[in-house]
Amino acid sequence: MEQFTQVFGEVKAQATAVTDPLVVPNSDDPLQAFAAVFGKNDYQIEKQAQEEALQKQQVAAAEQAKQEQSQAQQVQEQVKQAQEKAQAQHLQQVNALKTRDSEVKAHEHAHATVGGNMLRAQALSMKKAPMANVMLPMVRYK
User: What is the pTM of this model?
Assistant: First the structure.
């Protein structure tokens, strides 16, 4: 023993307890008691791996749901922008037609004013063209 002490120094006995969050002290489970003495067994390692895999799946599912929601919001925004653009174009077209209608009415009024009694006023009506689904303006004189 003296030689041992000279070579390795004095040995201090220390009692260390195995602490593991998966091991419940004073458990009736023999696997946990075994793990407390000898470390984790295959069952505990597999159980921990399954829990970690489940957590990863849950995180991945949450991220995928977030991405899908973001994509849905982008699609809704694009649809809204397209509707607003179409509505603006329609309004612009209606305004252009109103302007043109006013110009035509003013022009016809000028003809009636200059011609006086010499010209007969025109009455415009719409008549369906034969053999077609097209409406054509027809001029009638009063």
Answer: 0.41
